[in-house]
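ok so heres the complex, two chains, lmk if somethin looks off
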Amino acid sequence: MSHGAAYATGLPAVIRGEEAFLAARRAKRAQALLGLAILLGCLVAAAWVSEAHPATLWAGLPRIGEYFARILPELRWGALFASAETEGSLAFWLYRLPEWAWLILETANMAALATLMGSAFALVFAFPAARNIAPSGIVYQATRRFLEALRTVPEIVYALIFVWAFGIGPLAGILAIALHSAGANGKLFAEAIENADLRPWEAVRASGGSWAMGCRYAILPQVLPNLISYVLLRFEVNIRSASVIGFVGAGGVGEELYKVISFNYYEEISAIALLIILTVACVDLLSERLRHAAIGRLEAAR
Amino acid sequence: MLQIEGLTRRFGAKTAVDGVSLAIAPGQMVGVIGRSGAGKSTLLRMINRLTDPSEGSVRFQGTDVTALRGQALRDWRMRCAMIFQQFNLVQRLDVLTNVLVGRLNRRPLLSSLLRMFTAEERAMALAALDRFDLAETALQRADTLSGGQQQRVAIARALLQEPRIILADEPIASLDPRNARTVMDALRGVNRDGITVLVNLHDLTTARDYCDRIVALNAGRVVFDGPPETLTAQRIREVYGVSEAEFAEEAAAAVGAPPPRQAVPA
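and the predicted structre for the whole thing:
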């Protein structure tokens, strides 16, 4: 046996070391096995409680494939670029492209507005929610919990409330997404502020500047590139949110998507889904570039 | 007249400053020396109220500074400017704006948040920079300047507060000897204009060269207070129980400054 190599040396220190190593390895393996068993138990319990029966999963899987097969358009090579009148052409599949494009533009605008509104709100609340500069423990706790509450409620719930209050339309969606963004970005902003260098802050305060002036002059210049990067990231997330928030009548392309899904207009489902995916991909690419530019500026400053 | 009366600060069980009483006449340049942990920094920060005292009082022309709150406290801080070891400039802002930070207390909140300053204030800031040969750097970012330049920008910022007192906490500990001299010259210069200067120093030679009066702290207490010529090597040994060379080496190491020049043995 290869373990014997240590014993073969005959040196007590080597033998003791090898034995300690083996004991430690046994303990580690037992621990890993135990952890794995607990994890597995939890998984089974969770599946049982939430009625996620493997049998249902197994039976349903083929139907997902079936659904995808149904929503796929019937395109014919020969007629691919024919007019909208010809079945099997791209134009026939996307026959309502102008309307959908407009809806998607509306969706992107909703996301942009909601991101800006939410982030402006987040900026105001992030300073008192940063532990290192919060005026007092109470203010810190209060703003932190408030931001938490804002982001805990899902956008779709906000949307339902606002649709009820302001009626069907994009305004409800914008407000819903903005509130959620405020909560989510407020936390991220506050954490960026907590990482800021406090020496300039001390200098502004020591020269008689107020708390707000300290935020403006000592902290904001340090964290701005970081915040911009978070805002762009939020915009990407919000584009996705804005695409589905229309399901409850809160504007954007979601309303149309919900309609075609409920009415089983199979080919239109795939058409809209494709357009949404393309838009999201474009926004992602663009904002990723901008974000890296912002981070690059941050790094260059260090 | 700045009157410090029984000033004490405790951090948990540790007493950083222990019953310090000092009277500082207007226009004096006072060097505060002491080993690491002697309480120099805490003493200065209590005068500006960056740190609140546990006991005792600071009075300035009859006003109890220790009792001030809100706007009155900010007004006091404006009149009692602070210089830091690490300069504490906003690295990502230009030099001019860093200097204008000294005016913030006098600006209405809204216009200050929009970074709007008057033409007079800009002229003041440029003049203060020009005094230290830094007017050319006004639009550069603060982090492009050398340490000595940054500290002089910090002094210009302090001047824009139009202060009665400048508190300088180890202003030259992070600088090389040449820059240290320009910064000390700058401080001495503004002192000659009538501003009282309290400066924490780790370097005895500098304290002797530049100050009218030296206050030595040990374990939070004042152990020497007098003109520099009376602080002889013998007094240092009496007060601190170590030779002057040992004291200098220790103090320099504590603030991360380069070791002092050793006297060449004859």
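quick notes: Chain A touches chain B through 21 residues (CB under 8 Å). thats all i got rn
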